[in-house]
Amino acid sequence: MEFSSGLFLNAIIAGLLLGGFYAAVSVGISISFGMLDVVNIAHPGFIILGSYIAYIVNSLFGFDPIVVALALSPLFFLLGMALYRIYYVCFEMRGQDSLRGLAFFFGILFITEVTLILTFGVDYRTVQTIYSDTTWRLGELDFPLRLVVPFAVSMLMLAGLHLLFTRTFFGRAVLAVAQDQLALRLMGVDPIRIKTFAFALSIATAGVAGAFLIVIQPVEPSIGREYIGLAFAVCVLGGLGSLTGTLVGAFVLGLAESFTATFFGPSWAPAVSFGLLLLALAFRPAGLFGR
Question: Other CB atoms closer than 10 Å to residue 54's CB: what's the count?
Fold first, then answer.
């Protein structure tokens, strides 16, 4: 492929915008897996669920999918609370939160996917917004709004989460809960309550990420499987439990996929996340910002 500065710069722009979306997809995994030691492989299933809820409301009422997801995020929060309490009572409280807990979340992912297939079929679904087909052009540079809007909202969401985890007592308790639950109990804090709210927060971010996904591309129920490896690759690359690392890892992965798709073909792009995951595990297992 012939090289041009415009092509190179557009690949950077697309990679950064895509990285913002990947950060929204992965931040919930960073919270549940990195901070709480809960390997929620069902996370992509809740992302797809968020996509379909946004699709339904957009089809019926024409509301913007991202606005719908933000408005309904309290419902995903409550769903996350209920899911964690079930997980805690059935597995974590009994000390069976490793292999059996993993099977539990795989079952949740399977049930979510099958329910969506039975309800909507396997056809791809998409949404219409006022900015879906709009692209801002600045000379040779293109800024497709279907990527720009999710990127902007994703950055605001991550900034809010960063402030929550670094400037509040709740955030410091979440960071400490996986390290020393006894110390938290001595301070009068219930670790299970903290983990319940933190896990619920991770599910709420999945619902918002689902709206981003259906704005960016059409979705079908099984597409969530593609994001399992990607989300864990971002978290491992950036460092488990680090929101800053999650953002940086998402940008690295987004840029790598964008350059791969631009200069070598889009069919090679899906292999990038797994390649970076293997490299990170081999040379820096703690990630870029791992503690």
Answer: 29
